[in-house]
UniProtKB/TrEMBL annotation:
It comes from Noviherbaspirillum humi. This is Sulfatase. Keywords: Cell membrane, Membrane, Transferase, Transmembrane, Transmembrane helix. GO terms for cellular component: plasma membrane. Pfam families: Sulfatase.
């Protein structure tokens, strides 16, 4: 189990997880990192000429701004607005034009594998393969006349470092703000707010802005400033804490909730910036995967495991009043799907449909803004591909276990 868990992690996450186990750590991470870079550089050349043929037929000359926030390590049931006993989302709970999707899952619990499924048409069951033969939604928006921004509080060493940075480089403007790291870096997500405002103020009429946040990534105690350190005892300011240390259970959980409280504030700021435009504006938030947090008697924390806590992610849509006036039908349909069985595979299709961008190969059956939406099977990488809706959630860890031996066909 330890081997398969390590395999799901990215090169840099492996550094955190096993990098200290020298000399094994150094040789492994150097080789893996080099191998992935070579592969992604090759792949980038292959899909250079790819095009969606995307265009916006309606409101071609009108202003519009769309923000996609990619959340990090956030789990559905720790958000107050999703019914959590602690009020971790006091600001978002007051937003009128905000809708939480109650049943959206990710197919795999590892950033570098799950984010590409959010951004592209990569099928979930291909998510374990590095790279993909198509470009991402960033390119589709560009083709449709949008100026595109990728603003990240995650790290990137270079253009071909991860499958995510390959997609990030499709944007007109790509900027990485985290110069520290994941584990003990105090680069809080508010570092993205000023660049976001600058992007919103850009003279281009239509804009897509992707914010790749650090959210609730371990070390949770480093994810928020002091004023959000509400639940105690916490890991606030701690360095070198280990998520494998069961003795930290209480502080780890409190800090996790504090990081969600900070995300609530961060997303409210994003929404405030969009409200001030008085334009047709909207925001979609979706987390890349959730997190195990020593639930009950469960003795695991972090991600890369096979638990429901890691597959069920929070997802939100916010829209301005102007957006609803222009696209009332989309909002009506969205409300109908708030409890539908969704997955990150729906995001590409839904975000483009939300902007009313059309392209010859579009499949509106995958868009939760479309009356043509149809349910699809949802597979998660849990001891092999497992049909999430035909699985049992076992034990305190709520491991997703296949109910019957079915081999999915493509
Ligand atoms: Zn992640």
């Amino acid at each position: 189990m330890w081997r398969s868990w390590v395999a799901k992690l990215g090169a840099r996450e492996r550094m955190t997880a096993i990098g200290n186990s020298a000399p094994l750590g150094f040789g492994l991470r150097t080789w893996e990192f080099w191998r992935e870079r070579q592969y992604l550089a090759r792949l980038s050349g292959v899909n250079e000429g790819f095009s969606f043929g995307a265009e916006q037929r309606s409101r071609r000359d009108s202003a519009q701004v769309i923000v996609l926030v990619i959340g990090e390590s956030s789990r559905f049931d720790r958000w107050g607005l999703n019914g959590y006993a602690r009020d971790t989302t006091p600001l978002l709970s007051k937003e009128k034009n905000l809708l939480s999707l109650s049943d959206l899952i990710t197919s795999v619990s590892a950033t570098r594998l799950s984010v590409p499924v959010i951004l592209s048409r990569k099928p979930s069951r291909q998510s374990l393969n590095a790279g993909f033969s198509e470009k991402s939604l960033v390119s589709a928006f560009r083709e449709a006349g949008y100026k595109t921004f990728w603003l990240s509080n995650q790290m990137s060493f270079g253009e071909f470092d991860t499958p995510i940075s390959v997609f990030a480089r499709e944007a007109d403007v790509t900027r990485f703000f985290n110069l520290g790291g994941y584990a003990d870096s105090p680069s809080h997500d508010d570092v993205l707010l000023a660049p976001l405002q600058a992007a919103i103020d850009d003279s281009a009429k239509k804009k897509l802005i992707v914010l790749h946040s650090l959210g609730s990534h371990w070390n949770y105690g480093q994810r928020y400033p002091k004023e959000f350190d509400r639940w105690q005892p916490s890991l606030f300011g701690s360095v070198n804490a280990a998520f494998t240390d069961l003795a930290l259970k209480e502080a780890l959980n409190n800090s996790y909730d504090n990081s969600v409280l900070y995300t609530d504030w961060f997303l409210s700021k994003v929404i405030d910036s969009l409200k001030r435009t008085n334009e047709v504006a909207s925001m979609m938030y979706v987390a890349d995967h959730g997190q195990s947090l020593y639930d009950g008697d469960c003795r695991i924390a972090f991600h890369g495991h096979n638990t429901q806590y890691e597959f069920h992610v929070p997802a939100l849509v916010w829209f301005s009043n102007s957006y609803e006036r222009v696209f009332p039908k989309k909002i009506r349909v969205l409300h109908q799907h708030r409890d539908s069985r969704l997955s990150t595979e729906n995001v590409f299709h839904s975000l483009l449909d939300m902007a009313d961008i059309r392209y010859p190969s579009e499949q509106l059956g995958w868009s939760f803004f479309s009356p043509h939406w149809t349910p699809h099977q949802r597979f998660v990488d849990s001891y092999g591909w497992t049909n999430y809706d035909d699985a049992t959630m076992e034990g305190a860890c709520r491991e997703v276990i296949r109910r019957q031996e079915t081999v999915p066909s493509d």
